[in-house]
Amino acid sequence: MDFLKNYAEFVEQEIKNLELPSSPIDLYDPLKYFLAIGGKRIRPILTLMSGELFGLKKEDVINGALAIEFLHNFSLIHDDIMDKAPLRRGFETVHEKWNQDVAILAGDVLMIKAYQCLAKQQGDLKKLMDAFNQSAIEICEGQQFDMEFETKESVSISEYIEMIRLKTSVLLGCALKLGAIAADASKVDSDLIYNFGVNIGISFQIQDDILDLYGNPATFGKQIGGDVLANKKTILFLLALENANEEQKESLLNLQKELNPDRKIQLAKELFDSIDVRGKAVELKNKYSILANQNLQKIQVETCKKQNLIQLSDYLLVRKD
Amino acid sequence: MDFLKNYAEFVEQEIKNLELPSSPIDLYDPLKYFLAIGGKRIRPILTLMSGELFGLKKEDVINGALAIEFLHNFSLIHDDIMDKAPLRRGFETVHEKWNQDVAILAGDVLMIKAYQCLAKQQGDLKKLMDAFNQSAIEICEGQQFDMEFETKESVSISEYIEMIRLKTSVLLGCALKLGAIAADASKVDSDLIYNFGVNIGISFQIQDDILDLYGNPATFGKQIGGDVLANKKTILFLLALENANEEQKESLLNLQKELNPDRKIQLAKELFDSIDVRGKAVELKNKYSILANQNLQKIQVETCKKQNLIQLSDYLLVRKD
User: Fold this and answer.
1) How far apart are CA A118 and CA A75, in angstroms?
2) Which among A165, B67, B166, B275 could bridge B142 via Cys, Cβ 3.0 to 4.6 Å?
3) Per-residue CA distances from A186 to A192, A240, A299, A300, B120 (Å)
4) B133 and A125 in contact by Cβ < 8 A?
5) Is B166 part of a structural domain of the chain?
6) Residue A105 is nearest to which of B109, B133, B143, comparing CB atoms?
7) Pick from A119, A129, A148: which is nearest to B130 by CB?
């Protein structure tokens, strides 16, 4: 994580340097608050690294990087309303700390701020806009699919993969693509680095689902089994359902009604183990990691310059579980 | 209104021609619904007329026009949530017909669609973006000020004018400015037509406040006295407060507590008449109409080409009251 420090500090400093107005106070205070509670700034770092890969300096792509970070934070503020989430990164969400109207409007302004940053980014603005707009729309589509899946009776593995591709993965691809466009990289290389990011995103999300049940409680950061308790249709549940025999299928559906939380998690583990769900999920995760690496390898830049991105992808995907 | 028909039909047709995806259904159905219930399409028509003024054809500025219309509709969908409005243009609002989450997300996507249109507009994209972003942010600021004014004890006339400038007027200015930028008009002319629009917007909003109490019930389209009944701080109320003597001030504050609606409206009229609020409001309205016309006159284009815009501004501002 040490190799990320310089990048993260650079992004952090640029966010601090933003001169946001003081009034209307209930519009800009929530923005400042939400941007300050941060996160790891992985997405803007991807833009910086991609810009460097194609020959630019960090400073040359910071506006694109901020645009991506703001787009991400806009979607979090609005998603938190829809998900009725009380906390984000351990802090109160905007709609909790202020109210829902404030959160809607703060998200809206942050989105427009994202476009203001994008407009300042060097490079072909039309191409930057096209990449950015497509991903922004897909993020909304992904969020909608995610909400629909909650009440939908059956969701296929491929529908689920498509949902996480839209909801979380295209943003990683877009972050990288902006760096490539800013550097005037070829269309082929821009698409390769985009696909590198999207596949990392899918792989990461599958891993996140795996860690929900099989993660190390000391390092995972969320409650182990939280998805199981919430009856979420994660990749584990969907793989279990797809590979279950009739008896196992019945147990899976009965599991949803179990009220004792410890017992519910224990039963889920036993059932998933009997279907080797973890192995199947890891296999799927690896499929997308490999796809990601294949795309990175094909980019027409010396391998040594790719080290930062390889290290970042390892950091994201080779978590201890 | 006949001279608007061609323009409105052109905009309507272009909106119908949009190929919006069918899925996710709860994301795109609300969008299609809201865009179909229409309105008079004044804002995109302003962009078309401005483009023509500076030598372009309607077709050359349609993307900028749609961007403005989408920005406007995005802000309506989100404002309706915040205002808990059940109806818009006589139809159910999106959060009423679907639910609030759907309305948040539909608004978000519409906003991104606005930027997609903008990116397709001919002309200097950086300049188009700068104008568009500034107005988009100001609209959010205006909405926030408007909400804050509801609970704020005292609001000055100049604060009120600034709020309506941000919330509704800059969008008219921006609509016109996009047409000018698309046509590569001079900076001076772009600013003049922007100021023409902003001043029309302020004048129109003041007129709207006047019509609330003094409009013709047969043609106004809203309930006469609605603002009075809701204790809204309109320009009439603020002018009354500013010009009232101690006794009238007390009557004004007592008026807020009156429960009988007919009596409340009657009392407001009597009180406002005794302070000549209507005359003062019309004077203020005229001040901004005159400013608008002065800006239009200064634009370096033959006067005959300005006829459409003059006619449109008359249509907006010379309503029978």
Assistant:
1) 17
2) B166
3) 10, 42, 10, 9, 22
4) no
5) no
6) B143
7) A119
**How many CB atoms are closer than 10 A to CB A224?**
16
Residue B181 within any structural domain of the chain? no
Q: Is residue A310 part of a domain?
A: yes
User: A141 touching B, CB under 8 A?
Assistant: yes
Tokens of A316: 């994201």
Chain A residue whose CA is closest to B137: A109
CATH number, position B101:
1.10.600.10
State the pTM of this model.
0.96
* Residue in A166, A172, A71, A235 with CA at minimum distance from that of residue B21: A166
Residue A77 near residue A89, CB atoms below 8 Å: no
Count of CB pairs separated by less than 8 Å, A with B:
101
Coil, helix or strand for B238?
A: helix
The residues with which A87 forms a beta bridge, in sequence order, are A92
Which positions in chain A touch B129 (Cβ < 8 Å)? 115-116, 118-119, 125, 129
Asked if residue A95 lies in contact with residue A103, where contact means CB atoms within 8 angstroms, the answer is yes
Write the single-letter amino acid at B85.
Answer: A
ipTM of the complex: 0.95
**pLDDT tens digits, one per residue of B256-313:** 899 999 999 999 999 999 999 999 999 999 999 999 999 999 999 999 999 999 999 9
Measure in Å the smallest separation between the Cα of A118 and chain B Cα atoms.
Answer: 9
Beta bridge partners of A88: A91
pLDDT tens digit string along B19-56? 999 999 999 999 999 999 988 999 999 999 999 999 99
Segments in chain A below pLDDT 70 = 1, 319-321
Give buried/exposed letters for A4-32 (b at 16+ CB in 10 A, else e). Answer: beebbebbeebbeeeeeeeebebbbbbbe
